[in-house]
Design a protein that fits this description.
Layout (H helix, E strand, L loop, with lengths): L1 H11 L3 E3 L7 E7 L5 H12 L4 E6 L7 H7 L2 E4 L4 H13 L4 E5 L14 H9 L2 E8 L4 E8 L5 H15 L14
Parallel strand pairs: 1-7, 2-5, 2-6, 3-4, 3-5
Antiparallel strand pairs: 6-7
Helix pairs in contact: 1-2, 4-5
């Protein structure tokens, strides 16, 4: 029933899904461009309408009653951001403790304009064997989904450059376009 409701809400909001669930049991879907809290809402509606759960990382401070209850039901993972270097380790532990786990992550790491994308997804994928999918939420075309995967090398920064080139070519537009950059 919830899948049907999310599908109807997504359609009512004018969004078109591109592809469905990621076929690999361990997967990371890159969410770009991340310029608004609406990215989470649209992404949740999309993946739930496809019958999946895309887990997201949210700082533990948001997990108070009753919000924490709903966040966990939506697939959110509470992490302690005060321990910066262990954040990735926390996610790896959670991901490795599940047979099937799809993680949605934004390499920008913030909704503010940033040119430096974070490589945590790369470390997580290497440590868990997850396949990386190049996902998008394009507010210009009102399309959400994924088309391609990213074959990782041992050089995270080069892989990020390839990702930026991919999104530059795709021409995705964030809710607030001025807050998104694929420049080096």
């Amino acid at each position: 029933m919830w899948k049907w409701i999310c599908k109807k809400l997504l359609k009512w909001l004018g969004w078109t899904p591109v592809n469905g669930l990621m076929p690999h049991k361990k997967a990371i879907i890159i969410g770009v461009p991340h310029t608004s809290a609406w990215d989470f809402v649209i992404s949740y509606l999309y993946y739930t309408s496809q019958g999946g759960v895309a887990h997201v990382i949210i700082k533990k401070e948001f997990f108070f009653w009753p919000l924490g209850f709903f966040l966990k039901r939506m697939g959110a993972i509470p992490v302690d951001r005060s321990k910066g270097s262990t954040l990735v380790k926390q996610v790896i532990e959670v991901m490795n403790s599940h047979e099937t786990f799809h993680l949605a992550i934004t390499p920008e790491g913030t909704r503010k304009l940033t040119k430096r994308w974070k490589a945590g997804f790369h470390t997580i994928a290497k440590a868990t064997g997850a396949t990386v999918y190049l996902g998008f939420f394009d507010f210009g075309k009102k399309q959400i989904g994924w088309v391609d995967t990213l074959e990782l090398t041992d050089n995270a920064q080069e892989d990020i450059k390839r990702m930026k080139a991919y999104y530059r070519k795709k021409g995705v537009i964030g809710k607030f376009p001025e807050l998104f950059s694929v420049e080096e």
